[in-house]
Amino acid sequence: MDVRRRGIVFLVLLTIGCSSMDARPDLERARQEIATRSGVTVDWTLDADQAEGFQRWLVAKLAEPLSMDAAVAISLLNNPKLRSHFREIGIARSDLVAAGLPDNPAFSVERRFRGTAAEFDIAQEFLGLLLIPLRKKVAESEFERERLKVTQEVWEHVAEVRAAYIHLQASEQLLEMRQGVADALSASLTAVRALRAAGNIGILEVALEEQAEGRSRIELAEADLGVVESRERVNVLLGLSGAETEWRMAGRLPRLPRNELEFAELERLAVSERLDLASAKAEVEALSQAQELTRITSIIPEFGIGAHSEREPEGETTRGPSISFPIPLFDFGGTERARAKYRLLQAQDRYAALAIKIRSDVRGTFARMSVARSKVEYFERNLLPAYQRATDESQLLYNGMFLGVVSLVQAKRQQIDAARDYLQAVSDYWITRTELEQVVGRRLPTGELLQVELESPRPKISAHHH
Question: Are 200 and 465 in contact (CB under 8 A)?
Fold first, then answer.
């Protein structure tokens, strides 16, 4: 074997030797990036495929009141749809390894019957060997784009889990409030009927109270259904079924954080942290490198070298080298180069459009969160105290026989509706904040938070005589 052939063989062996099919380091990198962005530390050595160890960990987690971070951790390890996203990294790693391998040589044999003539050919596509380094650069950029894309999808899943958890918290608190209201109105209806039996009120007052009590029961049933639906949404995101769905919620809706990040800081974070934007940038880099490759392959898409052996009918055998390449007689590669050019321009436009959309999303979501915060603060400072004062005053007037039962029930109803709207406003704030975290690309600091302690308005009507 001469020096040139040894060099080619060495190049091929070196290329193959540097390729690895093991995607575990890439998965670990993506997982650590998610842990950094979500603030949730997960033991990635656990895996649902390792049934015994993982099941012990899952049972221990579900035996405790389930916090939001625990819900995220379970989902990251247990959700089958999420695990399928991680498999994409292994597929992309396989494509990267394949890009660094030379094409297999082609062997052909021809045998002629009624004679001894035979022809043997073996050929190797040679241009592909020379272009392996450039193709690997293109494949590496494509791999990085896919890795970032998968990591972004996982981050969006984490944000979805957090939003579903918040929605369940709000649903459970609303159910608790509706239960207290229904019980109180049931007691009030008993008192009103006693007043009617004593001849102190008319049929209209009793009918109105019966309407209020009946409506409270319907609203209680709707709130109960809301909890079931919200809980099932969390179960799906966490990949839970059967007895695993009997977990308990930890904590209640928190109050608002004392301080918010400035808008300019959020916009800067979004541009620097968004993984889909980094993936779009990697696509531009990959297509830029692919354009260089196209400039070569568009003219000579392949160039084969090989060896030829032929045995003539007379018994003589001839051997020699062979080469093959297409002649650019009709197609000079202009269409391929144009396609590569416009694909690059298209990717650059997509990158610019995504950057514009991200900034717009930050502005829009930040505005919605600010409005939701203002609503919560206005409820706490003005509306809830005002409704409480009105209810207390109505109760005093009723107890002093200066106000009818219908007016008292109306005051209680307004307070109940205000409490419901307040819970909804708190829930809207935290869900919008979670959406802002998704837009920015990482979890936002909140600091120490207090709990929302909202007492359910409970109408109290005694059966005294006017």
Answer: yes
Cα separation of the two ends of the chain: 117
Name the phi and psi angles at 20, rounded to 5: -130, 135
CB 178 within 8 A of CB 377: no
Compute the CA torsion angle 287, 288, 289, 292 (nearest 10 deg).
Answer: 110
User: Domain residues for 11?
Assistant: 3-440
Asked if 413 and 137 count as a contact pair (C-beta separation under 8 A), the reply is no
Residue 92's pLDDT is 76
Report the distance separating Cα 372 and Cα 260, nearest Å. 13
Q: Is residue 54 part of a domain?
A: yes
Is the pLDDT assigned to residue 59 strictly greater than 60?
A: yes
| Orientation angle between helical segments 132-197 and 3-17, nearest 10 degrees | 10
Q: Say how far apart CA 213 and CA 209 lie, in whole Å.
A: 6
CB 185 within 8 A of CB 457: no
User: Per the domain annotation, does 456 fall within a domain?
Assistant: no
Which tokens belong to 156? 């969006």
Asked if 426 and 229 count as a contact pair (C-beta separation under 8 A), the reply is no
Which tens digit of pLDDT belongs to each residue from 108-158? 666 666 656 666 666 556 556 656 666 777 777 777 788 888 888 888 888
CATH number for the domain harbouring residue 342: 1.20.1600.10
Buried b (16+ CB within 10 A) or exposed e, 63-84: eeebebbbbbbbbbbbbeebee
C-beta atoms surrounding 207 within 10 Å? 13
Q: CA 126, CA 11: separation in Å to the nearest integer?
A: 12
Residue 458 belongs to a domain: no
Q: Is residue 112 part of a domain?
A: yes
CA atoms within 13 A on the CB side of 268: 5
Q: For residues 89 and 276, what is the distance between their CA atoms, to the nearest angstrom?
A: 15
Structurally, how many domains does the chain consist of? Answer: 1
